[in-house]
Amino acid sequence: MKKANHHKNGAPFQYAKSIIAVVASICATFHLPYRQLAGTLQGMMPGHKTPDYS
Predict the structure, then answer these.
(1) Which residues contact 49 (CB under 8 A, 6 or more apart)?
(2) What 3 state SS string does the chain have?
(3) What is the Cα–Cα distance from 1 to 4, expressed in whole angstroms?
(4) How far is CA 42 from CA 13, 14, 25, in A?
(5) Residues 17-39 pLDDT 10s
(6) For the CA atoms of 15, 19, 21, 25, what is the dihedral angle to 10 degrees?
(7) Is 12:47 a contact under the CB 8 Å cutoff?
């Protein structure tokens, strides 16, 4: 993320493009609502920051 945010104007990126692609694939494949997707991600990546849709 340091490389992606280097010389970037505005707010820094929080998630890599590859993570966003994987999450979009999971969402499309399993037809999960956003809150259920967030819970699934928290279970898959304990200790990492996951999106909060509240």
Answers:
(1) 14
(2) CHHHHCCCCCCCCCCCHHHHHHHHHHHHHHCCCHHHHHHHHHHHCCCCCCCCCC
(3) 5
(4) 19, 16, 16
(5) 888 888 889 889 999 888 888 88
(6) -130
(7) no
Measured N-to-C along each axis, helices 34-44 and 17-30 cross at an angle, to the nearest 10 degrees, of 120
Residue 33: HSE in the Cβ half-sphere, 13 Å Cα cutoff: 4
| Entry pTM | 0.61
Paired tokens of 2: 């340091």
Name the one residue in this structure whose structure tokens are 């699934």.
40
User: Rounded CA gap, 11 and 45, in Å?
Assistant: 24
